[in-house]
Design brief:
The structure is a single chain. The protein is mainly beta. It is built from two helices and eight strands. A four-stranded antiparallel sheet has the order 2-1-8-7. β7 and β8 form a beta hairpin. It is globular and about 40 Å long.
């Protein structure tokens, strides 16, 4: 509810590698695969890194699932109809790749297609979560 969101919420962020080659690490499974397919079709999705971050209003929040790609998140408070209104900046090392305003809702991840990684594609996933696993 809105009061929980105003107190601080948990955001899950992940860097995923979309590839048509066999994966070496942890393969992404479950309902997220269908959403990744819609953003960038690939045979496999490998989890490069993930991070949970509590989000508080009026503070800079950093979601850092990898040293290569990370996100600065500024909360703008509860969104009409539920969820959280955010200002997001996707960074690759010291360069800002994307700045956008977005509304995140539980069980509705936002996927940003990031830079290529050789023949593969990096994807940044951000999702509002109620708790970490």
């Amino acid at each position: 509810d809105a009061q929980e969101i105003e107190k601080g919420v948990l955001i899950w962020g992940a860097v995923v590698r979309g590839t048509n080659n066999p994966v070496q690490g942890k393969e992404v499974e479950g309902p997220l695969v269908e959403k990744l397919q819609a953003a960038w079709p690939a045979a496999h999705y490998e989890m490069v890194g993930e991070h949970y971050q509590q989000i508080f209003r009026e503070f800079e929040n950093w979601l850092k699932p990898s040293d290569e790609l990370f996100m600065k998140i500024d909360s703008k408070g509860p969104a009409p109809g539920g969820g959280l209104s955010l200002h997001l900046q996707l960074w690759q090392r010291k360069n800002v790749l994307v700045k956008t305003d977005a509304v995140l809702r539980p069980d509705s991840p936002m996927i940003i297609v990031g830079p290529q990684w050789g023949a593969d594609q990096l994807l940044f996933v951000v999702e509002l979560r109620k708790e970490s696993p």
